[in-house]
Specification:
Bound molecules: guanosine-5'-triphosphate, magnesium ion
Number of domains: 1
Radius of gyration: 19 Å
Structural class: alpha/beta
Number of helices: 9
CATH architecture: 3-Layer(aba) Sandwich
Number of strands: 8
Shape: globular
Largest sheet: 8 strands, parallel
CATH topology: Rossmann fold
Strand order of the largest sheet: 1-4-3-5-2-6-7-8
Length: 256
């Protein structure tokens, strides 16, 4: 494996769809014109999503043909996605071979951090785009030796809104919630939480200091997504991570 880190740059073109939406809405004065503009917006959005869905299916078929387990990790900025990935890859080394694609608006800080754990890491810089899409992931993963991996981890751009609508071809969508964000976040960002396969409650080492209401948080998560597996962990201390590793290794074994 050996700590390589590469960059896939300049994906600002992904904002095309937003540009189109802004254009068609301008100058619509009457109710009829606004309704027509709204209808056209919906058609364009469906077009963008169905193109993404097709590309995501292509990714999924490729990843499965390589017997990879693919994770799409999403959360608010700073919940600990990179810390969670770093710790996971370090601790499962020797049992699972992991590779990472990480998206941020700017900087390759996260890919550098992950590369230090010894895993290959590709940074995507999205410019002004607040999510990864299937095309970006396809381009980035073309730079990885997928035959040398068991698990492909995609760290999405940090926010709980945009990434929820974009299938990347993953097997599992993993949503992180850290104890400092507020117990109501699952209720406020329902689309993200409802599409989760796994919810990781992170930073449990500071739950007491943060006044974290564990019962309320877990109840809100279960209300939004009763089928999700939930792990309460600290990516900093390692607390609770063993149960996550068992789950991960079991799922990865199902792909081999
Ligand atoms: N106390 C504590 N701090 C943590 C834990 N996990 C992450 N952190 C800290 O939280 C901050 C943000 O962590 P990151 O891993 O950069 O978070 P991220 O979700 O990847 O952030 P973005 O990529 O910017 O969205 C850092 O200062 C981490 O050291 C944890 O379990 N406990
Ligand atoms: Mg990060």
């Amino acid at each position: 494996m050996g700590g390589e880190m590469q960059k896939s740059k300049g994906r600002v073109q992904r904002s095309e769809a937003r540009g189109q939406r802004a254009d068609i809405g301008d100058g619509a004065d009457t109710i009829g014109q606004r309704a027509e503009a709204e209808q056209r917006r919906i058609v364009i959005n469906q077009g963008v999503l169905s193109k993404n869905d097709q590309l995501a299916q292509g990714n999924r078929a490729l990843f499965r043909s390589k017997h990879l387990l693919t994770l799409n990790i999403v959360s608010s900025p700073g919940s600990g996605k990179t810390a969670f990935i770093e710790r996971t890859l370090t601790d499962v080394k020797g049992r699972l071979r992991g590779g990472v694609v990480v998206g941020d608006l700017a900087t390759d800080n996260d890919a550098q951090r992950i590369a230090r754990s010894g895993a290959p890491a590709i940074q995507i810089t999205t410019g002004d785009t607040c999510h990864l899409d299937a095309e970006m992931v396809a381009e980035a993963t073309a730079k990885l030796d997928l035959d040398a991996l068991d698990v492909l981890i995609i760290e999405n751009v940090g926010n709980l809104v945009c990434p929820s609508s974009y299938d990347l071809g993953e097997d599992l969508r993993i949503v992180l919630l850290s104890v400092t964000e507020g117990e109501d976040k699952p209720l406020k960002y329902p689309t993200m939480f409802k599409t989760a396969d796994v919810v990781i409650v992170n930073k449990m080492d500071i739950a007491g200091a943060a006044g974290f209401d564990r019962e309320t948080a877990l109840s809100n998560i279960h209300r939004m997504v009763p089928r999700a597996a939930v792990f309460e962990v600290s990516a900093r201390t390692g607390q609770g991570m063993a149960a996550w590793y068992s789950f991960l290794e079991q799922r990865a074994a199902g792909r081999m």
